[in-house]
Design brief:
217 residues; alpha+beta; five-stranded mixed beta barrel; 52% helix
Amino acid sequence: MIGYLQGKILEIEDNKLLLSTANGVGYLVTMSIREGISLQAGDSLELYIHTHVREDALDLFGFRTKDEKDLFLALLNVNGIGPKSALGILSHTEPGRLLQIIVDGDKESLHDVQGIGKKTADRIILEMIDPIRKQVQAGKYSGLLSKKPSETHAKVSGAVSGAGGILREAREALMGLGYREMEVTSTLNSLMAQSTPPTQVEELIRSALRSIGGSAS
């Protein structure tokens, strides 16, 4: 099994990259979208790898830190979550933030993570909270929990009661205007996933109205 790779990025598209190692072999690795957007061809990179073997394929999933890889593996232990779902979760929330949500048993914040339905969010908390709390108490994941929030996340957290509060208030307002829940949720999550997301409810609502109006034209 491949557990670690070091090399240079030859090609990158979205969250898939071709990593060339010193021995001349190129490996196709899938990363979280959150990590992938900060990379470009020519970058040198070290990745912790999870090798996922299927009957018809062998997929490599890459992570910048061992803690993030371990959190990904912990998500895989949740009933009904596969590699693509787990990576999708890590694509839309910073690992340290996700870890804190699980430790706190904060279902409401997890409901706001793009790609996680309410039942899946509840299952993640139910199945992960005890083992994750024990691991954190034993000193694991200290690298994730000790990191200060990114500038983007810090800006978001400064308004209302964090990203969850902003999303909930904006969603309620837009649905009150008659927009469909699926359309509203997709639009809001896309806006909050930007590198510089709206930091106030009013700003998020205005951006969402422009986005929905543009997609309808």
